Structures are given as C-alpha cells and as structure tokens.
Automatic annotation (TrEMBL):
GO terms for molecular function: arachidonate epoxygenase activity; heme binding; iron ion binding; oxidoreductase activity, acting on paired donors, with incorporation or reduction of molecular oxygen, reduced flavin or flavoprotein as one donor, and incorporation of one atom of oxygen. GO terms for biological process: epoxygenase P450 pathway; xenobiotic metabolic process. This is unspecific monooxygenase. It is found in: Endoplasmic reticulum membrane; Microsome membrane. GO terms for cellular component: endoplasmic reticulum membrane. Its EC number is 1.14.14.1. The gene is Cyp2h1_1. The lineage of its organism: Eukaryota, Metazoa, Chordata, Craniata, Vertebrata.
C-alpha cells in the first residue's frame, strides 16, 4: 500500500461545500475555475506568513508601493474578488426574491430591503468580501481539522 496525503481532497471537498452554501452550486473537482480558486486561496494562505504581508497589514498605504510577496497576495485577492463578482452578477440576473437559492440571493434580497438606507452595510463590495471571508475562514480550518481527525483515527484504530 502506498501512502497518500488526503490534504488536497479535503480542501476541495470543504471548498465545494462552502460553494454550495454561498453560490448554490458545487463544482466538479477538475473544473478549471474551481481549481484556480483553490490554488489562489492556498497561495495567499502561504503568503500570509511573510514579513512583507504582515507589514502590509499595518502600513497598507506605504507597502502597496513597495515590491514583495504581498503584491502577489493583492493580485490573487483581486482575482478571487473578480471570480466572486462574476457569480454575483449572474445571481442578480436570475434572482427570484421569493425563492432564495443560497447566501448570495439572501444577501441580495437584504440589499433590496435596505435600498433607501444610506448607511446600509449591504453592498456588493460587502457581499464579495464576506464571501471571501467565508472561504478563507472555512476552507483551511475545516480541512486541517478533518486531516487531524484522520490522523487520530489512524493512530488509534480501536476508536473506529
């Protein structure tokens, strides 16, 4: 028997569940857009640890003019944002307010309710950022938890 690392499979599975809740649809594991999304999020996860990125978090106005790995993270985030905005635009075109399909539809319905409120936080930008937050917060933590759970089950097979 060959050893195998379930990490990628778990990340894909968890991301697809998040896609199902947020976008109302799952992706094929080989789907180019889906794989690209996962790769961008994974790369940004790794870039988070660089000193440049940490400095960017404290001094964004200065750091956005300096070269470094944080520039790649900014580009990746813009690509993920574009991916999300395309799906949001599709949802806006096919929205049925009486039958929300997913998180995006529910958010768009709330945006419509808040239309007259100039101080509302329900905007397309907030929707896009919230979607990104759901991916970042959910994908890594959940897949790592599952990975550790599998390791524990492997170490203590009598539990099963």
């Amino acid at each position: 028997a060959q050893p195998f690392n379930p990490g990628n499979f778990l990340v894909h599975a968890v991301s697809n569940i998040i896609c199902s809740v947020v976008f109302g649809d799952r992706f094929d594991y080989e789907d180019k857009k889906f794989v690209t999304l996962i790769e961008l999020l994974d790369e940004n996860n790794k870039l988070q640890n660089s000193i440049h990125t940490q400095l960017y978090n404290f001094f964004p106005a200065v750091m956005e003019h300096l070269p470094g790995p944080h520039q790649e993270m900014i580009k990746n985030t813009e690509k993920v944002d574009q991916f999300t905005l395309e799906i949001i635009a599709e949802h806006q075109e096919t929205l049925d307010p009486t039958c929300p399909r997913d998180f995006i539809d529910a958010f768009l319905n709330k945006m419509e309710q808040e239309k007259g409120n100039g101080h509302s936080e329900f905007t397309i930008e907030t929707l896009s950022r919230t979607t990104l937050d759901l991916f970042l917060a959910g994908t890594g933590t959940t897949s790592i938890t599952l990975r550790h759970g599998l390791l524990i089950l492997q170490k203590y097979p009598e539990i099963v």
